[in-house]
DNA sequence: GCGGTTAGACAACCTGGTTGACTAATATCT
DNA sequence: AGATATTAGTCAACCAGGTTGTCTAACCGC
């Protein structure tokens, strides 16, 4: 048992991947075949007020062009709409559709269920302790999602 | 404070990114400018016996072609050599160079130092507890590194 | 009204993956 | 031995998701 710093990093990555892969799987089984976590995050950001491409890009720490590509996908799948802003002719105001909110809701539900599974395995107090420490270590600093590929790709044999 | 499943995922990702970004920064400062964690992992896998492109690919859960591309980079930078296998004319046997081992050593050292910093912040016992739980939850299952981009990319304002 | 800024679109390009096709060498089977 | 199958590596085409740069149209301030 090495307990090296590198192992620690791998453990964290492993934990993350485990959750995300399982969640993506489950989301697919519930009928949202091609939703990737990055879509979920993007929809969430839009719902939270990043309602145009530029702001979404800022929120996601990617260029506005990259954000626009993501938006195009979300729009095509019916998770967001894009209509002209009456107050500013340049902007295209983004709005999350009912379907979009539904994906969000299900995504949350799935993640919560996965967390519950973890609670069952190591106990509530222990998991909360783990979260508390991680929060301390990671700090409030926003987690950047600007990792091309990676969470957007389809997964092999995860679950 | 939501303590939702999604937050947990973000915490894990944040922890990982924090370590990896800092490590990459530090490695760069020590003169290994363009080493990304993925290179470290690849060298490590080669040193551990995945000494041809096919096996390296399997180890890293990527195609042999992708592995070959990585190898080309490692070779160009002098971290590995590739010579004919006297026993099997098809294979090109990989070997980690002294420089390659040096990168590995420094990488380890850096990660260990980062872990020490964490120990200082939350205490040895707590960190070990965290590691123990994560190990339980993630299981022995090999962590897949097949995330295109992401750890290979250069980092913005991390540290 | 005019110059500067801002939102979005378009295009070219990069990285790091993928699959598919092909060659050469080794293994296996009759 | 010889025919056949497998295996390692390479090449090429392609894809996803990002980047920068350029351009247009609309807004803002003087």
TrEMBL record, chains A, B:
GO molecular function: DNA-binding transcription factor activity
Any one GO biological process: response to stress
Chain ranges of the HTH marR-type domain: 5-139
InterPro entries the record matches: HTH_MarR-typ (IPR000835), MarR/SlyA-like (IPR039422), WH-like_DNA-bd_sf (IPR036388), WH_DNA-bd_sf (IPR036390)
Matches recorded under PROSITE patterns: HTH_MARR_2 (PS50995)
Name recorded for this polypeptide: MarR family transcriptional regulator
Organism: Kribbella kalugense
Organism lineage string: Bacteria, Bacillati, Actinomycetota, Actinomycetes, Propionibacteriales
């Amino acid at each position: 048992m090495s307990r090296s710093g590198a192992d620690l990093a791998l453990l964290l990555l492993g934990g993350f991947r485990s959750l995300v892969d399982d969640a993506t799987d489950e989301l697919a089984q519930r009928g949202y075949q091609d939703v990737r976590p990055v879509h979920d995050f993007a929809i969430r950001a839009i719902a939270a007020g990043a309602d145009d491409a530029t702001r979404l890009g800022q929120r996601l720490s990617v260029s506005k062009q990259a954000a626009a590509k993501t938006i195009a996908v979300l729009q095509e799948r019916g998770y967001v709409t894009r209509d002209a802003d009456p107050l500013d002719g340049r902007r295209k105001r983004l709005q999350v559709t009912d379907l979009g909110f539904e994906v969000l809701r299900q995504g949350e539900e799935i993640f919560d269920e996965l967390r519950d599974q973890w609670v069952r395995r190591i106990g509530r107090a222990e998991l909360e302790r783990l979260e508390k420490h991680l929060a301390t270590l990671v700090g409030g600093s926003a987690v950047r999602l600007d990792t091309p590929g990676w969470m957007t790709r389809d997964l092999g044999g995860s679950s």
